[in-house]
Amino acid sequence: MFGFGRKTTPVAEVKASATGRVAAMGSSGRAVWSPRDTGSLVRLGFTGNPVGFRAVKLVAEAAAAVPLVFHDREGRLDIHPVLDLLARPNPGQSRSEWLEALFGQILLTGNGYVEGVGAGGLPGELHVLRSDRMSVVPGPDGWPVAYDYTVGGRKHRFQVGELSPVCHIRAFHPTDDHYGLSPMQAAASAVDVHNAASRWSKGLLDNAARPSGAIVHLGEQELSPEQFDRLSVELEANHQGARNAGRPMLLEGGLDWKPMGFSPSDMEFQKTKEAAAREIATAFGVPPMMLGIPGDATYANYAEANRAFYRLTVLPLVGKVCEALSHWLGLHLGERAALLVDRDRVPALGSERDAEWTRIAAADFLTTDEKRRLLGLAPLGEA
């Protein structure tokens, strides 16, 4: 009644997907964005992206080469300990190297940290500290009371007192009280798109510039695991890579090749890549023309783009850093100090400076001393 002792034949278990006959060789998915931490942004946007690398280098090198002058209460000074300190900030770096490192940290992380080494008075050495190793220690009122510098599990704390050993220069950040917002963070999405387009182009070349496709099995029976594995290995070995470009595909009976996806012209990956490059350049304030990026020519010529680059990007950045260093070094000196840009020696602004001199010199209603003050020069009576 219950079938005890009856010998039964097991039913073969069959599991098959409705899409089992299609062995897809290409697929698409949801967008995946890279992490937004400092290390990932620097790795992907600077060391791994030519547009981001060149934009940061262009701004940092141009800013480091801007000539500076020192002013105290008496006026401009050509000889001063601050100028000597900036000429050789530390034994391992020259003026240009030190300033380039400082500007580069601000551009990549939004923060620049300068350590002054010395006991009392003007520091004897200046060092740029890595921003990814620094962290702000806020006090009960929210203002920083210390800075922690961490390397390999070891931590050094810089106490913030009346005279702080660290000068923190940060870019504007609308939602953070202690850290600045870098152009690299704003350009992160464009960097991801640009890197993805580069990988797509590389993958297209590795696959003999062919779009993805699928091998369709037309037979009645499903492919066995051994047959599927052998087919995959043969495709990878004989039909991928530049060395296999143009090789005809030989398929066994019951197999058919169906191309999938769009051609490169339809997808317009090159235009997408150029648009992402322009967005990266825009985030750093570099005219795309100066980076060799094709597209709409915003400026009539390279000279005009170079003037706009200095006027809108380089000089504001140098001015921000000079103001912060002037205040910090002035506290150590115990006197009012000011580092300013010597605009007369900025080659990109030569034509604008000539026009200003001509305009002021032709103003007959101004005295000689008034003209000199307008041009940033000391009056003759005080020279």
Question: Can you tell me about this structure?
Answer:
With 383 residues, this protein is an alpha+beta fold. It is built from twelve helices and twelve strands. It has helices at residues 38-47, 50-64, 81-87, 95-109, 183-186, 188-206, 225-238, 264-267, 269-284, 302-333, 350-361, 368-374; strands spanning 22-24, 68-72, 75-77, 111-117, 125-129, 134-138, 144-151, 154-159, 166-170, 213-217, 255-259, 338-341. The strands form four sheets. The protein has a three-stranded antiparallel sheet, with no helix packed on it. Strands 3-2-12 form a three-stranded antiparallel sheet. Strands 5-4-9 form a three-stranded antiparallel sheet. A hairpin with a 2-residue loop joins strand 7 (144-151) and strand 8. Helix 2 crosses helix 4 and helix 2 runs parallel beside helix 9 (269-284). The longest helix is centred in the C-terminal third of the chain and has 32 residues, at 302-333. The chain is elongated, with a radius of gyration of 32 Å. Mean pLDDT is 80; it is low at 1-8 and 14-29.
